Amino acid sequence: MRKRRGGGRAMGSAGQSSATRLGLAGGVATLLGIGMARFAYTPLIPALVQADWFSTHAAAYLGAINLLGYMFGAALAHRATLIFGVRNVLGACLLITVASFYACALDWGVVWYGFWRLACGVTGAALVVVGAPAALSRATIQERARTSALVFTGIGIGVMASGTLVPWLAGQGVAITWLALALVATGLAWWSWRAVWRDLVPLEKTRARTTSDARLPMLAIGLIIVAYGLDAIGFVPHTLFWVDYIARELGQGLQVGSLYWVLFGLGAVCGPLLAGAAAARIDFRPALVLALTLKAVAVALPLFSDSVWALGLSSFGVGMLVPGTVTLTSGSIAALSTPERQQQLWGWATLSFALAQAVAAYGMSWGYEQLGSYLPLFGMAFVSLALATLCAGTAATRRVT
To answer: Which domains are seen in the chain, by residue range?
Structure first.
């Protein structure tokens, strides 16, 4: 068969592709699936309302429907690859996600928007569930920490852009903003498809790497999945209420609150790289325990102080550890599972995260209405992260043969 120029034929083994290219392609998947499809929408809500495209209630509903789609995507992604194959699922999800950005540039009503926000929620989850394991399972053990860091840097870049570039673009108009995002997404999706995904071939099964559950440390994997769900509860106050807490409850104003969100985004960009470095030094599971411990402390800081230093450390620390714990959870599951089972197990973890996140978001919103303060929510988040640390710590002590 004729060889394609610029990057080798098959992706059946790590030796046939660089860890950097694998990591960057996985990073495109997380950037499009979460960083852009989800986080880019939040700062556009005021512009959508101001441009009279939607009411405040409808705009919030369209944000929630994306989370619903994400849950469906997390539940269905692995089964879809069994029917259509990893390569075809990734190609279809890249196409639909990019198409959703172009579609949202059209003011064709709430039903039109709702369909595309739901669709990109489904495909966004599938890109994370399928794309991350596709990259990690084809990297060697020595390359896995660096590859994992690159894969999940996409989330941090999306968070950073949501606090800086997207608000600036929104000032130019809603349609222009969506078209700019669509053009960037088109270029990234095209590169990742040409560089990696179009040449993807199924992983070869061997006798040495059986897929039998009896050979997998399912208790340790299960504890990590539970920890990941608890982690989702722990990060909700910062990702949903942090700016409003600083702006209104502390009375510092929206501009100051937005500056702390930019600091949160800066931490999110650094998080996967630091997590990858920690995993390379002390291994994934101990690094996950350390990350969850630090995240619990960072989330609890507002309970003790509202000084600039406390709020700044909390912003940067939680921002850093949101994608950082994703990186380490994925790497821990990859280290404990076989390549054939990695995608399924990571799908279970993603579903656990999505369900816990949705329940916590609605529950904490209701709790705020009842309590009239965000501070108790930070306390709940701390307890959840403390339990997550306990689960991850127990998993780290489990001996794996």
So the answer is: 16-203 (1.20.1250.20), 214-396 (1.20.1250.20)
